[in-house]
Amino acid sequence: MVTEIKALSARIAEAYHHAKPLQIEGGGSKSFLGNPVQSDLCESIDCKGYAGIIDYRKDELMIRVKAGTKLAEVESLLAENGQRLPFEPPQFAGAATIGGVVAAGLSGPARPYLGSVRDYVLGVAFIDGRGIAYEMGGQVMKNVAGYDVSRMLVGSLGEMGLICDVSLKVLPADEVSATYAWLTSSVDAIADFQRLQKEGLPLSGSAWVEGQAFIRLGGSRLTIAHAAGLVAGEKLDEAEGVQFWQDLKNQQLPVFEGEGALWRVSVEPGSDALLDTAQVIEWGGGVRWLKNPAMNPRLASDPHTVTLFRPDQNEIDSPTSTPYQHLSGAVLVLNQNLKRTFDPGAILNPGRLLATVPEY
């Protein structure tokens, strides 16, 4: 075990012994996600110092990285070698780390076409809430028996363990990428997205932003040249197209700016839920973003998953400011049992993901 991991393990073991909660800190680019940690007595445990590339096997499409490594560094290395992280994680403020990428589990525009963060995690080394270090998964894609702990950590916001290093599958970069845009309604845009996907076009992004639809095609020059004839819309300048998708995933478009609440609603792509109030639609219609809606989206009648992605700072203590929908039944029990297993003292980021801290 390397010196840094020994030190982190010892710190967590001591906190567990003395029942002192810990707040895990990385680059801080996604500190707004989730509930506030539920303890004024939390001490910080900083992971940014444990950084660097452990192993990169270009021919095997695999990279293993320490959790404190900046996302920008990893993406730069891959780009130099004609490869990429296909799930396109957002950087937001620009200080995002690989540990934060996995802990947050956020994916970008290519998610419905190429997969999520979880789909590309091969293995994870982490420390549980007792200070015990584990290495789960591997460095190649393979079938696994039993519970896939490494992928369970994706999206756990540090509540199940402190991620130390991650093995990720990578993919070759597209030879060519082309973005097309046209004016249309949200209803027609979703119909267009679904039609283009059924026609087998090499889609790697689809979005509707306040009256304008955008699609991105990616692949070989021959493939893109053929697909372009099936798309009705204006082709954007290459640099303009790249910038649009970067701004979309990092929420730097004008529609995301300003104060107020930002809601993320996940629905069936063909659903008509909240179409009249969504300012941005992504993932072929599967995600709708609402900025400052007149009504709480959780009150809508259609079944969907609603997340208060960025709360209104003026209403941070209101009953409607809870980021995640409350779990119940078997799903709640499963999550509590996982928390109890990996963090028996409930000291890691208490309340960040599960609003109610389990009492053991």
Question: What order do the helices and strands follow?
Answer: HEEEEHEHHHEEHEEEHEEHEHEEEEH
Number of helices: 10
Helix content: 25-40%
Shape: globular
Q: Report the sheet-strand fraction.
A: 15-25%
Q: Compute the gyration radius: what is it?
A: 21 Å
Question: Uncertain runs with pLDDT below 50, 5 residues or more?
Answer: none
> What name does CATH use for the topology of the largest domain?
Uridine Diphospho-n-acetylenolpyruvylglucosamine Reductase, domain 3
Mean pLDDT: 90
Count of beta strands: 17
Looking at how many chains there are and whether they match, the oligomeric state comes to single chain
- Which architecture of the largest domain per CATH? 2-Layer Sandwich
Outline the fold blueprint.
Elements (H helix, E strand, L loop, with lengths): L2 H15 L4 E4 L17 E4 L6 E5 L4 E5 L4 H10 L2 E2 L13 H7 L6 H4 L2 H4 E7 L5 E5 L11 H4 L9 E8 L1 E2 L3 E8 L2 H13 L4 E7 L2 E8 L1 H8 L5 E2 L2 H12 L12 E5 L13 E3 L4 E5 L13 E6 L18 H14 L18
Structure at a glance:
This protein is an alpha+beta fold. It is built from ten helices and 17 strands.
Quick tags:
360 residues; alpha+beta; Uridine Diphospho-n-acetylenolpyruvylglucosamine Reductase, domain 3; Alpha-Beta Plaits; 8-stranded antiparallel beta sheet; 5-stranded antiparallel beta sheet; 10 helices; 17 strands; 25% helix; globular
Can you walk me through this structure?
There is one protein chain. The chain is built from ten helices and 17 strands. The chain has 360 residues and is of the alpha+beta class. It folds into two domains: 3-172 and 333-342, Uridine Diphospho-n-acetylenolpyruvylglucosamine Reductase, domain 3, CATH 3.30.465.10; 174-257 and 262-310, Alpha-Beta Plaits, CATH 3.30.70. The strands form four sheets. The protein has an eight-stranded antiparallel beta sheet with strand order 13-10-12-11-15-16-14-17, with helices on both faces. Strand 11 (203-209) and strand 12 form a beta hairpin. The two termini are 30 Å apart. 41% of the residues are buried. The model has no long low-confidence stretch (mean pLDDT 90).
